[in-house]
């Protein structure tokens, strides 16, 4: 890493220093000397690295091996989903299962990198607003690093996330409101309490951990990117990170200029990016009364919405919203078809896939990858509502009828 650059005004910031946002409000992006790196590191060397996301260490920000806090994140399965593909009419369909990361979600990648940089920069107190999984990940990595973790979550967060955070020894505050309300509390208390704010994209390093999903996908697919990627989009950091990774890999000479269509998936009860995309806007507007069972998608206004929209448009992709009942049904059906019990956020992508195949946006022979961002086991309350309906005698769309005792 050579410097940090503002994603809005392009101002440069010195590496190795503590930074949050640029003065203009833009998130900072880590930049690397990829020309020099191209002459010293090639993709054939990756297999010699650790069996984790840190195999891509030369394009990650820590400068000292002793700074790295790793629990084995990354190198998650890319599963060919043949039965699902046959049913929906997608002949080349895969699911990238991030639910097998430490703490059960893709958030492990970002927080491993962010906490590692906190260690390197001498930061001893971290604070985060979270809809659930980011909190669990930060609590785990902070515990591994011996750093204080202060967590603010909506009161109706999945129970698994609350229990995890408490077990890791984090200081947890439940808030009557949304993640945006939690973020205001963190921002207000950061200076007073001495916390470093690791809100999504208010620091530069969670993005760097999540971009490894792009490197990893390219490696797993033999350095040939798919035609389309479905990504559940709350804060959208994973989508932004992968788009950044594809650009870096092309500059390294590892891939060509071809890019997947990036498809941002949201829910009907909270779809600020979809609305902005449809209106041709560069930024989204705050989504009032946001609600969904997919807690990770309940983000009323992503901080880096302009970067999400840029990636979607440049790739020839789209943004689409699905309903809560649709995504829960899609998740249950996938579990029965493929043995994959995924988070509601990932299940939203399955429902979105069906819609875009049906309307002709995607073709049957295109290579398609769905990103599942978490384990379904962390969302038992959300899935339980469906089986409660069935227990009362509702016809199961999978073909059976559960009779109440």
Structure summarized in a few sentences:
The protein has a domain at 78-102 and 210-390: Rossmann fold (3-Layer(aba) Sandwich), CATH 3.40.50.1100. 38% of the residues lie in helices and 15% in strands. The protein has helices at 34-38, 82-88, 107-121, 133-145, 159-167, 179-193, 206-210, 212-220, 237-252, 272-279, 305-314, 324-338, 344-358, 380-391; strands spanning 3-6, 12-14, 28-31, 78-80, 92-97, 125-129, 148-154, 171-175, 196-197, 228-232, 261-267, 318-322, 367-372.
| Strand order, sheet with most strands | 4-5-13-10-11-12
| Rounded mean pLDDT score | 94
CATH architecture of one domain: 3-Layer(aba) Sandwich
Q: Please indicate the percent range of residues in DSSP E strands (runs of 2 or more).
A: 15-25%
N-to-C terminal Cα separation, in Å? 62 Å
Classified by CATH, the class of one domain is Alpha Beta
Total beta strands: 13
Radius of gyration: 20 Å
Characterization of this structure:
The C terminus is likely disordered. The chain is globular, with a radius of gyration of 20 Å. The chain has a domain of 206 residues: Rossmann fold, CATH 3.40.50.1100. A 6-stranded mixed beta sheet has the order 4-5-13-10-11-12, sandwiched between helices. 38% of the residues lie in helices and 15% in strands. The chain is α/β, with parallel strands linked by helices. The chain has 14 helices and 13 strands. Strand 10, helix 9 and strand 11 form a beta-alpha-beta unit.
